[in-house]
Amino acid sequence: MKNSYKSGFAALIGRPNVGKSTLMNRLIGQKIAITSSKPQTTRNKIQTVYTDDDGQIIFLDTPGIHKAKNKLGEYMVAVANNTLRDVDVILWLVEASDYIGAGERVIAETLNRVDTPVILVINKIDKVKKEEILLFIDAYKDICDFAEIIPVSALKGENTENLVPLIFKYLGEGPRYYDEDTITDQPERQIAAELIREKALRKLDDEIPHGIAVAIDIMRERDRGNIMDIEATIICERDSHKGIIIGKKGSMLKEIGTLARKDIEAMLGMKVNLKLWVKVKKGWRDSDFLIKNFGYRNDE
């Protein structure tokens, strides 16, 4: 390890669905955070670790900052805001556009109240013409006192290799907080639950995913150590949603389970026997007890 070894914490913030989880997965080189085209995909602050010879970056992928509509929404915004207090650098992700909406202005107001260096990451440049990127930079450059501005495509990996050295620029010398082979502090049970929820987000109608959670009831490795038995429950808010999640003759639930099982097997490196159930818990997003029971905790 070098004498000038750097380490520190970097927060990824932005409106829902700007690509924070996709960027973190790209930088880490492995799927940790779930991705979806639907908002409110990330509900917990997910901590992942990037390590190389120069240092170590602990990324905090926060829930998107948005106007809360229920207690779950309030929890998500609180997690995102609290994270800004204890990090060395903030990465604010925005989409490649010269239109700055009300959501971005709310985030800019928040960032202007903190002393932490802010790197503006203009994402999704693969969807625009190269000559337009300078226009987007010009539109954003005065809304906040940015330390750096960098355009990237998290999905395609364009210019993301230049982001890590940029982050290290704002980190001081420090210890290696995690072993070099550590990529996340999330327990396997939580990642498994999130992978199941990701598949549900992708397969179900727009109005349903916001009202679902996933609880791992059983996660037990067999004695021979070559198969993991997992039983999980998808919780929804309405009786009508339960039927949609299950599908005709169980077809939708089976499809969600098949897709999730493949990702969980890749994560664990072993065969997985996955069984899914569906239960209705009306109004769980407004229940402090149920929010915590389903793994959404705000301990900061």
Please, could you describe this protein's structure?
The chain has 300 residues and is α/β, with parallel strands linked by helices. The protein is built from nine helices and nine strands. The strands form two sheets. It has a six-stranded mixed sheet with strand order 2-3-1-4-5-6, with helices on both faces. It has a three-stranded mixed sheet with strand order 7-8-9.
Low-confidence regions: 33-44
What is the number of E strands? 9
Give a short account of the largest sheet. Answer: 6 strands, mixed
- Trace the largest sheet across and list its strands: 2-3-1-4-5-6
Mean pLDDT: 81
Report the span from N to C terminus.
32 Å
Helix segment count?
Answer: 9
**Beta-sheet strand percentage?**
15-25%
Strand/helix succession: EHEEHEHEHEHHEEHHEH
Rg from Cα: 20 Å
Could you provide a short overview of the structure?
It is built from nine helices and nine strands.
Write the layout of secondary structure elements.
Elements: E1 6-13, H1 20-28, E2 46-51, E3 55-61, H2 71-83, E4 89-95, H3 102-111, E5 118-123, H4 133-140, E6 148-151, H5 163-168, H6 188-203, E7 213-221, E8 227-236, H7 239-246, H8 251-268, E9 271-280, H9 288-293
Parallel strand pairs: 1-3, 1-4, 4-5, 5-6, 8-9
Antiparallel strand pairs: 2-3, 7-8
Helix pairs in contact: 6-8
Q: What would the keywords be for this entry?
A:
about 300 residues; 6-stranded mixed beta sheet; alpha/beta
